[in-house]
Amino acid sequence: MFQFKNLFKLRGQSSLFTKFTPRNNQLAVRCHSTYRRFNNRTVASHFIYDPNFRKYAGGFLVLSGIFYVANLEPAPVSGRRRFIWISEGLEKKVGDYTYKQVLAENRGKILPSHHPISQKVTGIFKKILDVSPVDESHLDWKVHIVNDPNAPPNAFVLPGGKVFVFSSILGICANDDGIATVLSHEFAHQLARHTGENLSKTPIYAILGLIMYSLTGADMFNSLLINAVFKMPASREMESEADYIGLMLMSEACFDPKEASRLWERMSKWEKRSGISQPEFLSTHPGTERRISNMQKWLPEAEEKRERSHCNDFISFYDFGRGREIF
Predict the structure, then answer these.
(1) Which of 95, 158, 195, 228 is surrounded by the fewest CB atoms within 10 Å?
(2) Which of 186, 239, 241, 259 is catalytic?
(3) Higher-confidence residue: 45 or 16?
(4) Burial of 75 (0-12, 13-18, 19+ CB in 10 A)
(5) What residues are paired with 156 via a beta bridge?
(6) Active site residue 186
(7) Is residue 49 part of a domain?
């Protein structure tokens, strides 16, 4: 109906009168046929029932399925099989471009590398990097502390080895184990190549959106549906995977895995004070309560991994050296 009204609006007010003028019956018929020609459902039906279209579409689906299966590979630590066909080189280019943008946006706010907080966070990150099951030493790793107390608590690792930690999250971390929880989670995204996974799925979402648009003609509704059914659940799955991988890595690096759930409890309190909590199905991240529950469920495995790393052999010296500073 929206298209029908727009059609007459574009043709001018006189088009409304052609339906009631006998000598303009042919014009009225032409208007009606034009409307049918631009109806998305009619066009979609034409293609669906066309034998050649179905043949080519079937071939495309078969080849796409073969391509999809051929590019499935297990993620480190978790073993989840995911679809990645984007090269690490392309990931790095995306990371380098984003790195320049983030530096420009935070010019004058980044602490120097010799600052005590920068050195502390860098030292913790190096311990996590040392236990990585994949050799990441070829990347040019740099840790940046963005000193902006007004920014929301955040941290992220870009493809290519650039780490950003906002000072506003350090108070929530509270101690070295809390910082290790955040850093190991963010490093897990790089280790599992979640950026490459997202880039690999982008053409799939685009094709799906095009198919749905040809059937419904409602672009905004289709975008919301694809986000709710595909993109957001996939993002939440990757975030949960990063939580799991990060917990295992920090445990192997001799940090206390019990602190992970405590960190998320502190984050939950901050979210409630800030009034930014939202239903999980509308978010790209799992709900905080779910993350706490997951951490507690994975804790026995994490503690076993920590014990196998012989952390108890030097835990007293290690605890004395790292301290329990509150930022």
Answers:
(1) 228
(2) 186
(3) 45
(4) buried
(5) 164
(6) yes
(7) no
